[in-house]
Amino acid sequence: MLAPALPPTVVVNGQPCVLPQSTLASASLLHVLRNDLLLNGPKYGCGLGQCGACTVLVDGVAARACVIPAQGVAGREVTTLEGLPARCGHHSQGLHPVQQAFIDEQAAQCGYCLNGMVMMAVALLERNPDPDEAAVRRELSGNLCRCGTHVEIIRAVLRAAVLMREAQA
User: Fold this and answer.
1) What is the tally of structural domains in the chain?
2) Are residues 44 and 116 both part of a single domain?
3) How far is CA 101 from the centre of its chain?
4) Neighbour tally for 58: CB within 10 Å
5) Which range of residues forms the domain containing residue 162?
6) pTM of the model as a whole
7) Residue 83 predicted with pLDDT over 70
8) For residues 44 and 66, what is the distance between their CA atoms, to the nearest angstrom?
């Protein structure tokens, strides 16, 4: 006799989570994060993976949660905006250096794109701790900002790179 299959799990922001069976067949990762796990960082923007508002890190790689089936992340590690402080060792207090840099540079207006911009910046800086402006522009080119704070956002990413290097020194 075979043992019953265990429900699929995913690690979200360092915590193991059982994926709800009721939504696995058709739900996107974004749906599960927002509706089942009550995480508000990733936003629903276009629903097509084109605007970047829903960006999360899956095993450290930036990914569009609105187009990833929830079942596709079973056994993997997902980091949302809420999990960034722990990712850099600040656990539940403080901010990730990218979050702090966005505040310092006043890189938010309406804030809707902010999740995606921050998550893409984290992914970039983990791969390339010293990007130039052109690298930042390339990385963020697929993320839409309707308010026009692109200049401040680019400055924030470059500042975050400095903050992260200083923290490691």
Assistant:
1) 2
2) no
3) 16
4) 19
5) 84-168
6) 0.90
7) yes
8) 7
